[in-house]
């Protein structure tokens, strides 16, 4: 990489402050041991689910070119470890993060990993294109997030996928109140100031908007996390409409939420309110915006985005034609099937352990339970239906099954490998 920075200008002071902050307080905290992580990712189902999350209509591949932009201390190394056949490039502004990533590369002999100290805004200097760009927890720390995202868009392959995460505005209101409080007091990020802040927060009123996060989120239990959240020199957040403005302003189109149930009006408690029918008439992106306001607790937005100049690339699964029978459902590793304390008439309740909202559970009946049990990540829905008895005739059976598999997808229970079907998958209107 060259030392010349074409972006030196008005935003330099902010970028320098962010770099100094992360050099001193690398986040997430550095880790030395990735054995548990490696073991978890040896599960083929987990790897296939991760692939089809971003590319439902493509045949599964393991040799993917990945850019982890703003990789922090371990994210690039983790990607290299979990995808040995892929090539991973990690870039970060902070020298400490790069050093930590290099240490993991040596420890785990990650020949498929390269790490550079390079700002996201200069990703073009890498001189290559990537199938997948991962940028989580970074854009909101940039002085000009659009400039950074455009630079990443420019290195994305035409049919590539971008995995983004930015902070969400409403769920973090308490964080921004305390950031402002710290600014007014001129609190810096020395060890003593962070300890004093942690001690002061123990006196925070029980109903303060930050109190729930302090109590519930493991992220806020540690002093380095507290510094990252409350003393970060640059941090902004996005509502759903602002997020769509960001990605569409950078030549990208929304694909899907990484976990979609929390954004869907027909999942959870809202579906049983007098507003359900009114919400259902809204276009999807309006529903997402309304549900974010209604829930009030979404802390971050994680999504997949694609280039907007190739609208046919990366179609999403859909259930309007017969193609869905050829989809292969793959269970998500974070899901569990409960059989105790069931609601009346339910044979089981399906839960995604990553959902923090308690209303996001899916009761299923006996018939659905048989279909669910037959999901093995290899057989198509058509094959699953063929292997289970069909009381009431084929077409009624199919109509019930179609609704069920679509619900499993909406509730984040399964992903689909839709590559082997009729090729009819199409994009969801946003
Ligand atoms: C909260 S950490 C997230 C790390 C990682 N993406 C993850 O999810 O674990 C934010 C990272 O972004 C990096 N960063 C901030 N601004 C950046 C920029 N302009 N270019 C590259 N990296 C940047 C910081 O140094 C830090 O390592």
Briefly note the structural class of the backbone.
alpha/beta
Question: At the first level of CATH, what is the class of the largest domain?
Answer: Alpha Beta
Named CATH architecture of the largest domain? 3-Layer(aba) Sandwich
Which ligands, by name, code or SMILES, are bound?
S-adenosylmethionine
Number of helical elements: 16
What low-confidence regions span 5 or more consecutive residues with pLDDT below 50?
421-430
Shape: globular
Binned strand content: 15-25%
- What is the helical fraction, as a range of percent? 25-40%
Give a quick account of the main beta sheet: strands, pairing sense, barrel closure: 7 strands, mixed
Give the domain tally: 3
CATH superfamily name of the largest domain?
Vaccinia Virus protein VP39
Q: What's a quick, concise take on this entry?
A:
The protein has 430 residues and is an alpha/beta fold. It has helices at 12-24, 35-40, 44-54, 75-82, 95-107, 145-153, 173-185, 191-201, 211-216, 223-230, 240-249, 276-280, 284-295, 366-373, 381-387, 394-410; strands at 65-69, 87-92, 113-117, 130-136, 156-167, 252-257, 300-307, 328-331, 335-338, 348-352, 361-364, 414-417. Helix content is 37%, strand content 16%.
How would you sum up this structure, described in words?
The chain is of the alpha/beta class. The chain folds into three domains: about 10-170 and about 235-305, Rossmann fold (3-Layer(aba) Sandwich), CATH 3.40.50; about 170-230; about 320-415. About 35% of the residues lie in helices and about 15% in strands. It is built from 16 helices and twelve strands. It has helices spanning about 10-25, 35-40, 45-55, 75-80, 95-105, 145-155, 175-185, 190-200, 210-215, 225-230, 240-250, 275-280, 285-295, 365-375, 380-385, 395-410; strands at about 65-70, 85-90, 115, 130-135, 155-165, 250-255, 300-305, 330, 335-340, 350, 360-365, 415. The strands form three sheets. Strands 3-2-1-4-5-7-6 form a seven-stranded mixed β-sheet, with helices on both faces. A three-stranded antiparallel β-sheet has the order 9-10-11. α4 links the parallel β1 (about 65-70) and β2. It is globular, with a radius of gyration of 23 Å. The relative contact order is 0.12. Mean pLDDT is about 90; it is low at about 420-430. S-adenosylmethionine binds near residues 18, 27, 70 and 75.
